[in-house]
Design a protein that fits this description.
The protein is of the alpha/beta class. It is built from 11 helices and 10 strands. The chain is globular.
Length: about 260
């Protein structure tokens, strides 16, 4: 099985007025092509900063060490311009809050085609056609109408579908989804997770799914990585983590899943 991302000895730190803060502490993991790795842990466990560091999205006071090989290319050894060419094209990123991640003054259609025009120099007419095809994949209703809408005119679930659609526009090999079901109702959450499963199974897209909710992680993931206070606590297959967790912290997370979901 092909390894699409291999992270080795990754550490992330921030220079703060109170001193140096270690957000991620010497972690290593990998993701195979066409699989989903679920990254779970409480807020502040280092989940998001792990992937911000890999994709060049750390804040100005942040720094990282280690290596992150994406298709054999060390992302941590690339400058910001080279990383930005990969981000949005080879690597799609779905940010945490669909309510604020979309540009409020741009119509949905124009936001959908931005990355495709930037990365692949596609003409607007062709880009809009692809945007409609992508919105169909993420099960968006009334596509022609939605393309003319502004973000504030859409529901939370529709905005999240748009965010997933934007991440798919350049046919990425890897999608990083940061808390993609936060603030969505249970029914909409289920719809979004079903879309991720379809992308993985039918499009062979590799997914890194970040969540504090191990119930959400369990719906899509082939493997699960548990983090706490910047450390990798436990990693294994979804079945092994859910049925035979080795660490007390993992057992604590599992105890938070309602019985009717087990």
């Amino acid at each position: 099985m092909n390894e699409i991302l291999k992270v080795t000895n990754l550490s992330v730190r921030f220079d703060t007025p109170e001193g140096l803060f270690s957000a991620v502490k010497n972690i290593s993991f990998d993701i195979n092509e066409g699989k989903c790795l679920g990254i779970v842990g409480e807020s502040g466990s280092g989940k998001t900063q792990t992937f911000f560091s890999i994709t060049g999205l750390l804040s100005n006071n942040g720094a990282c060490d280690g290596s992150a090989l994406f298709k054999g290319i060390n992302l941590l050894g690339k400058d910001s311009k080279k990383i930005s060419k990969l981000r949005g094209k080879e690597i799609g990123f779905i940010f945490q809050d669909p309510m604020t991640s979309l540009t409020p003054h741009m119509k949905i259609g124009n936001q959908m085609i931005e990355a495709l025009i930037y990365h692949e120099k596609t003409g607007k007419r062709e880009a809009l056609k692809k945007a409609k095809d992508i919105l169909s994949i993420v099960r968006m209703p009334r596509i022609e109408n939605i393309m003319q809408k502004y973000p504030h005119e859409l529901s939370g679930g529709m905005k999240q579908r748009v965010m997933i659609g934007i991440s798919l526009m350049c046919n990425p090999s890897l999608i990083i989804a940061d808390e993609p079901t936060t603030a969505l109702d249970v029914t909409t959450q289920k719809d979004i997770l079903n879309i991720f499963n379809e992308l993985k199974l039918n499009k062979n897209i590799t997914i890194a799914l970040i969540s504090h909710d191990i119930g959400v992680i369990a719906e899509v993931s082939d493997d699960i990585m548990v983090m706490n206070e910047g450390k990798l606590i436990e990693k294994g297959s979804c079945n092994q983590i859910l049925k035979e967790p080795k660490k007390e912290y993992t057992k604590h997370l599992l105890s938070c899943i309602p019985e009717w979901l087990n």
